[in-house]
Every structure is written in C-alpha cells, then in structure tokens.
Amino acid sequence: MRLQAISLMGPTASGKTDLAVWLLERFPLEIISVDSALVYRGMDIGTAKPDAATLARAPHHLIDLVAPTESYSAGQFKRDAERVMVEIAGRGKLPLLVGGTMLYFRALRGGLDELPPADPALRAKLEARGQRLGWPALHAELAGLDPKPRPASSPTIPSASSALWNCA
C-alpha cells in the first residue's frame, strides 16, 4: 500500500511550522513531526519545538514519544509515521510531514536496509575490551576488519560511544 503525504522539509528556523499551521487551518491535513530531536520528551530548549499555544492550535504527531535515555531509530520512526499516516488517511485527511531530519524523510520515501538487531552481549564485550585496550586501539582493530576500507584521510572516532555506535 502506497501512503500519500505532503512533505515540508528544510533547516531549523526556516518557517516550516508557521507554514504548516497556515496550511492546516485551510486544508484537511494533520501534521506529523519529522524531527529527530522532538521525538524525545523534554527537548524544549535547543530545538525548534512548537510552543504549547501552537501545539494546541495545530497538534503534531510524533512529538514527545520517548525519554531521552531511550533509543529511537529511523526504523522506529518509519514504523510510527506509517501507522499515523494510515490513521490520518482513515479520518479522510492528508498527512503533512514537517521537519528537517532528512534521514527520517529518506526512510519514509525509500525505506531502510534491514540490519541485524543490536546485540547487548557484544556491546558489553566491546565496551570492556575498549576500556582495557583503549578506544583508539579498539577502533584501529575494528577498522582492520571493515570490508570497506576507509581512505587514510578519514578521521578516527574519538569517543567511546561513537566507537560502539559503529561496531555494535
């Protein structure tokens, strides 16, 4: 089933929300936030989260879904957004996708490659190994195992969390 929607995308503070509210007041639309920061509860500072008055006037789907300590992926966004899009269509309206997270837009339009699920045991093992050997040494070891070698000019990953992100 192909879902239809209007996409309003662009950088932060470019006027997307104001335009979305204007459109919502004139056409049978419902807004779905496509912002990777706004899925997290409490991200009211440092983001372009619409204020309470705007949200009362123009409710946005997919805002304040998870705690900042929880993980949320583009794949989860795709599943959540598609579910909401079906619900909106069932109400005889058209989804208006508003935001600037291009990975989320890409996931909706073209899908995502299937990846294996995270392995907490492997993550713990790599965490312990990184602590023991040092993160640069672990990163170099993992880079040697990478089937797609990087050019020598590629930057190394300096933080433990980034190193784990790339290998687990």
Portion in helices: 40-55%
CATH topology of the largest domain: Rossmann fold
The name of the CATH architecture of the largest domain is: 3-Layer(aba) Sandwich
Order of helices and strands: EHEHEHEHHHH
Strands of the widest sheet, in order across it, are: 1-4-2-3
User: What can be said about the biggest beta sheet?
Assistant: 4 strands, parallel
- The shape, in one word, is elongated
Through-space gap between termini: 33 Å
User: Helix tally?
Assistant: 7
**What would CATH call the class of the largest domain?**
Alpha Beta
Number of strands: 4
Strand content: 5-15%
Number of domains: 2
How would you state the average pLDDT, rounded?
87
CATH-assigned homologous superfamily of the largest domain: P-loop containing nucleotide triphosphate hydrolases
Structural class: alpha/beta
Radius of gyration: 20 Å
Low-confidence stretches: 156-168
Question: Topology of this protein?
Answer:
Blueprint: E1 6-9, H1 16-24, E2 29-34, H2 52-57, E3 60-61, H3 74-90, E4 94-99, H4 102-110, H5 120-133, H6 135-145, H7 160-167
Helix pairs in contact: 3-4, 5-6
